[in-house]
Specification:
Blueprint lengths: L6 H4 L2 E4 L15 H6 L1 H7 L3 E4 L27 H13 L3 E6 L9 H8 L11 E2 L19 E4 L4 E4 L14 H16 L4 E4 L41 H13 L5 E4 L5 H4 L12 E2 L3 H4 L4 H14 L7 E3 L8 H5 L1 H13 L3 E5 L19 H5 L42 H6 L4 H14 L1 H5 L1 E8 L2 E8 L2 E8 L5 E2 L6 E6 L7 E2 L5 E2 L4 E6 L4
Parallel strand pairs: 1-2, 1-11, 2-3, 3-7, 7-8, 8-9, 10-11
Antiparallel strand pairs: 4-6, 5-6, 12-13, 13-14, 14-19, 15-18, 16-17, 16-19
Helix pairs in contact: 6-7, 12-15
The structure holds alpha-D-glucopyranose.
């Protein structure tokens, strides 16, 4: 631990999509035993915590984000004993374990929903959001993120229920205190088993407008955007009351020692910061996804960092994310060269970074043939480029059949570059993306300036962004070239180059007339920490 910083502040998080990380039993789907086998890889990589996307019993309509039992393990992934073994093995290797908590909605096969749906007078009726229709239509105009109305008519009981996602993912009613208590108990169940934290799914969706007002049209909507974007979701999401719910979740975390509450929240920085809570009694890390959607230029990235730093409440800890199981692979979004620059940016910014499995070897978005599409979003709205399968393909470990991921038939096709782009090949190549990630993680671990130091922008000019990280009088300079051409660095920048993302300049003096190659980034230990 550095000074008084917690592990989730100075450390680095790594997201595992369990279906796709490592299969141990040949069914083509990754599992917990597979993850256990790969823990040494993660330790050597140099990350501090794993976050697992859902592993609970589920009909898998949304691949585990539709839960039918919050306190079990889906047999596809293993048994509870495997889970306990994973936590024990991870802890023994100095790795923390973070689970995905999906409190906004359950599967329609969850016993709570089956009861709730059974009749209007069932005691669990109010655990979900049931409303009468208006005329012959749904209660209001709210939309599902996955397309169409968010209301589903239930013939048997003659009312509509609300689902922000699939029809088979009914939203829980968080205004009901019994729902809150039930979910708090779910959290305690896992926290007692030694889980170190939760990433809370769609945190900004948890509470909806009590008056069920229509969402207004989105003035920025343009043709080609997903239909969900036609409205501004000011009544169906991000209600002020959600902060009480978040504070309630945090209180449960605080019954245990040193745990972390992370929120999945797709909101601009100015709105995101509310989720830290009034007196920082909310999420410790409301996920900051703004880098994912920002144009990849020195100016917009530089401005975004300043904008985010400016709105952070006093004492709130920043964080940065570049990819996850819902967004196009980083290397495909910005290109392979810039993905190496992005790695340096992510691991030298102030705040907790989250890595997405496979990005450390530069995995790209895989094109999925139509007959192998699995993602319900793509199935609902085919051909719109919304599909998430392409960023969820099996981890590429080596060049053997199925890339060392499985002995069976993988649930999604592998990237066709796996024979060359894999952990084994990149381990052997001194300048590979993987070795760059390892070097960056190693530097971050050795240099408290990078892990916990302050951030100050020094210069942004054209494609160049230069900033300083400083801790207790020691400073480092990071210079990044977002363009594809050579650019000179300021003359007064003297010192040692600790690392270049090209992996060819390591621990050498800054040359006279130093230039950065296209997409090159360097970390410099300056002669004077000014
Ligand atoms: C979150 C998850 C996504 C899922 C959705 C509904 O955004 O990351 O994968 O489909 O919630 O649970």
């Amino acid at each position: 631990m550095i000074d008084n910083f917690r592990w989730w502040q100075s450390g680095v998080l790594y997201q595992i999509y369990p279906r796709s990380f490592q299969d141990s039993d040949g069914d083509g789907v990754g599992d917990l035993r597979g993850i256990i086998a790969r823990l040494p890889y993660l330790r050597e990589l140099g990350v501090d915590a794993l976050w697992l996307s859902p592993v609970f019993p589920s009909p898998m309509a949304d691949f585990g984000y539709d839960i039918s039992d919050y306190t079990g393990i889906d047999p596809l992934f293993g048994a509870m004993a495997d889970f306990d073994a994973l936590v024990a093995a991870a802890h023994a290797q100095g790795l923390k374990v973070i689970l995905d908590l999906v409190p906004n909605h359950t599967s329609d096969r969850h016993p709570w929903f089956i009861e709730s749906r059974s009749s209007r007078n069932n005691p669990k009726r109010d655990w979900y959001i049931w409303r009468d229709g208006q005329g012959s239509g749904p209660p209001n105009n709210w939309l599902s993120e996955f397309g169409g109305s968010a209301w589903q008519f239930d013939e048997a009981s003659g009312q509509y229920y609300y689902h922000a996602f699939l029809r088979s993912q009914p939203d829980l009613n968080w205004r009901n205190p019994d729902v809150r208590e039930a979910m708090h108990e779910v959290m305690r169940f896992w926290l007692r088993r030694g889980v170190d934290g939760f990433r809370v799914d769609v945190m900004w969706h948890l509470i909806k407008d009590a008056q069920f007002r229509d969402d207004p049209p989105n003035p920025d909507f343009m043709a080609g955007m997903p239909p969900y974007q036609e409205l501004s979701h000011i009544h169906s999401t991000d209600r002020p009351e959600v902060q009480d719910i978040v504070a309630g979740l945090r209180r449960v975390m605080d019954e245990f020692e040193d745990r972390v509450l992370i929120g999945e929240i797709y909101l601009p920085p100015e709105k995101l910061t509310a989720y830290y809570g009034k007196n920082l009694d909310g999420a410790q890390l409301p996920f900051n996804f703004s880098l994912i959607g920002t144009p990849w230029t020195a100016q917009s990235v530089g401005d975004l960092i300043d904008r985010y730093e400016k709105v952070l409440p006093q004492g709130a800890w920043p964080n940065w994310v570049l990819g996850n199981h819902d967004r196009m692979r980083l290397a495909s979004r910005i290109g392979e060269d810039q993905a190496r620059l992005a790695a340096m940016l992510l691991l030298t910014l102030r705040g907790t970074p989250t890595l997405y499995y496979g990005d450390e070897i530069g995995m790209t978005q895989v094109t999925i043939p139509p007959d192998r599409v699995r993602d319900p979003w793509e199935k609902n709205l085919p051909g719109r480029g919304l599909g998430r399968d392409g960023c969820r393909t099996p981890m590429q470990w080596d060049q053997s059949r199925h890339a060392g991921f499985t002995n069976g038939e993988p649930w999604l096709p592998l990237g066709d570059d796996f024979a060359r782009r894999n952990v084994a090949a990149e381990t052997a190549d001194k300048t590979s993306m993987l070795n760059l990630y390892r070097a960056l993680l190693d530097l971050r671990r050795k240099r408290p300036e990078l892990a916990v130091g302050s951030y100050r922008r020094i210069l942004q000019d054209g494609d160049l962004l230069v900033y300083q990280r400083e801790h207790q009088g020691r400073g480092l300079i990071v210079a990044l070239n977002f363009g594809s051409h050579i650019i000179p660095l300021p003359k007064d920048l003297n010192g040692q180059i600790l690392l270049s993302n090209f992996m060819d300049r390591l621990n050498c003096p800054v040359p006279i007339d130093f230039t950065l190659r296209g997409a090159e980034g360097v970390v410099i230990l300056p002669d004077s920490p000014g």
